[in-house]
Structures are given as structure tokens and as C-alpha cells.
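pls design
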């Protein structure tokens, strides 16, 4: 029932009671007033409905927003969980790889230690046999530049000899003799080869090198010295008679040389020849 109808029903007895004393104009004023009240009531109701609808809409929007936030939070949490799981998996994988690499490094270190021990043993054996020194000599020789001029080449060999590198010097002297066998300086090269061989106590080879100087370069400046050094080397081989014969040959062929003066002193030191030596001398004279 509307507010207007209820008021109209309530006004009937009142109107009846007043019908006798009220006029129709007053009734009209009351009805107008009631209309105003009804209109205000409808306006308030409409406003309340609008407010209620606005509140309901706000609540719905808030619910949706909260739902979205909750969903986002759930997704974020899920993503974080997934990322954490992936990080843990990656970390475990990296730890596994690190352990494998550490094992490999440990194996490599063991292999290197064994290899070093084997290498030290091999090097010791090579040094004992002389193979390592030969290898080092060959390496040094390969690194040396070779002059094309015979004089410069011989000077290089002499420099190496003066530096104490006898193996390299010997190799260079041999190369000189192969390249320039007829060069007058070949007498010096052969003599120095004999000196190096004698220093290494390779006396038989030294005798041959000195003899080469005397036979192939008898007029060379080194020829008297080669004869004298040959005699000393023969004495080292305990071939005194042969040494005496070389000294006598030196005194006869190069009487004015400093080597001849040393040869005379050496002959006095050696004393007279043995009986076998005299027999050999007679056979040579015959």
C-alpha cells in the first residue's frame, strides 16, 4: 500500500467529522500536502536505490579487484615456486658438474705427477747415456746462423770453443772441413778438432786429426804444432816410441819452429828408445 493511499484512508473519518465544519478548499490543501510528501518519499527512495546500486557496484568492483589480486598473488607465488625449483635444479646440476670437474682435475694432477716422475727418470737415463747432451747440442747448433764466408764461419766455431761449448764447436769445425776442405784455414779447423778430441780423451781420433794437418797441409803454420800435439797424444796412449818418432820428425822438418824447441825437451824427457823402437826405426830407414 502506498503512503498516499494510507493517508487517504486515514483522512476519511477526519474529513467526515469535519465535513460539517470544513470547507472543500481545505481538503484540497491537505491533498496537495500529501502529494508533496509522497513525491519527497519517492525521491528519497530513488536516491536510496541509486546509492544502494552504487554501493553494490563498488562492492562488486572491489570483489573483482580482490579476486584479481588473489589470482595474481597465487600466480606470483606459483611462479616464485617454479623459479625456486628451477634454481635448485640448476644449483644441483652445477654442483654435480663442479664435482665432476674436480675429479677430472684430480685425475689430471695424478697423471701429471706420474708423467713428471717418468720424465725425470727418462731425463736421468738420457743424461747418463749422453743422449740428452747430444740432443741439446743439436738444438743449439740448429739455432746458430751459419755465415757463408769461410773466415766468419771459422771465427764462429772458435767463439763457441772459447765459450766452452766444445760439442757445438766440434760440429762447426766438421762442417767447415766438409764445405771448404782445400781452404788454407782447414788446417786450423783440423787442428782444433784434434784439440777437442784430446780434451775429451778420445786420443786415437785426435792422433788422426793432427796427422791430417801434417799430411794435407805440411806448409801450414799449424803443422809443427800438430806434430808436437800428436806426439803428446801418442804418449797418452803409452806409445812412447811412436811419440819419439813424431818428435824427431818435427825437429827434422821444422827445426826453427817453437814447437821444435819443445820437441827437443820432450825427447830428453822420454829418454832413449826401446829395443822394439830401434828395430822399427831401422826398418823405416831401410
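designed seq:
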Amino acid at each position: 500500500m502506498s503512503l498516499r493511499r494510507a493517508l487517504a484512508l486515514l483522512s476519511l473519518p477526519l474529513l467526515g467529522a469535519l465535513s460539517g465544519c470544513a470547507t472543500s478548499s481545505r481538503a484540497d490543501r491537505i491533498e496537495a500536502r500529501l502529494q508533496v510528501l509522497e513525491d519527497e518519499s519517492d525521491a528519497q527512495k530513488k536516491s536510496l536505490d541509486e546509492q544502494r546500486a552504487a554501493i553494490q557496484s563498488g562492492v562488486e568492483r572491489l570483489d573483482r579487484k580482490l579476486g584479481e589480486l588473489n589470482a595474481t598473488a597465487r600466480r606470483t607465488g606459483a611462479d616464485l615456486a617454479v623459479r625456486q625449483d628451477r634454481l635448485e635444479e640448476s644449483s644441483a646440476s652445477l654442483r654435480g658438474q663442479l664435482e665432476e670437474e674436480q675429479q677430472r682435475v684430480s685425475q689430471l694432477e695424478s697423471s701429471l705427477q706420474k708423467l713428471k716422475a717418468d720424465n725425470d727418470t727418462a731425463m736421468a737415463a738420457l743424461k747418463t747415456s749422453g743422449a740428452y747432451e747430444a740432443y741439446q747440442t743439436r738444438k743449439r747448433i740448429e739455432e746458430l746462423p751459419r755465415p757463408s764466408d769461410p773466415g766468419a764461419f771459422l771465427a764462429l766455431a772458435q767463439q763457441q770453443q772459447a765459450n766452452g761449448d766444445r760439442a757445438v764447436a766440434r760440429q762447426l769445425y766438421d762442417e767447415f772441413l766438409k764445405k771448404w776442405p782445400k781452404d788454407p784455414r782447414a788446417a786450423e779447423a783440423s787442428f782444433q778438432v784434434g784439440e777437442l778430441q784430446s780434451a775429451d780423451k778420445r786420443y786415437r781420433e785426435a792422433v788422426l786429426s793432427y796427422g791430417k794437418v801434417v799430411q794435407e797441409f805440411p806448409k801450414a803454420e799449424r803443422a809443427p804444432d800438430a806434430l808436437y800435439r800428436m806426439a803428446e797424444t801418442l804418449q797418452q796412449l803409452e806409445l812412447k816410441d811412436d811419440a819419439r818418432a813424431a818428435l824427431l820428425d818435427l825437429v827434422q822438418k821444422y827445426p826453427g819452429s817453437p814447437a821444435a824447441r819443445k820437441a827437443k825437451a820432450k825427447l830428453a824427457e822420454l829418454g832413449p828408445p826401446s829395443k822394439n823402437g830401434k828395430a822399427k826405426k831401422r826398418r823405416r830407414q831401410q
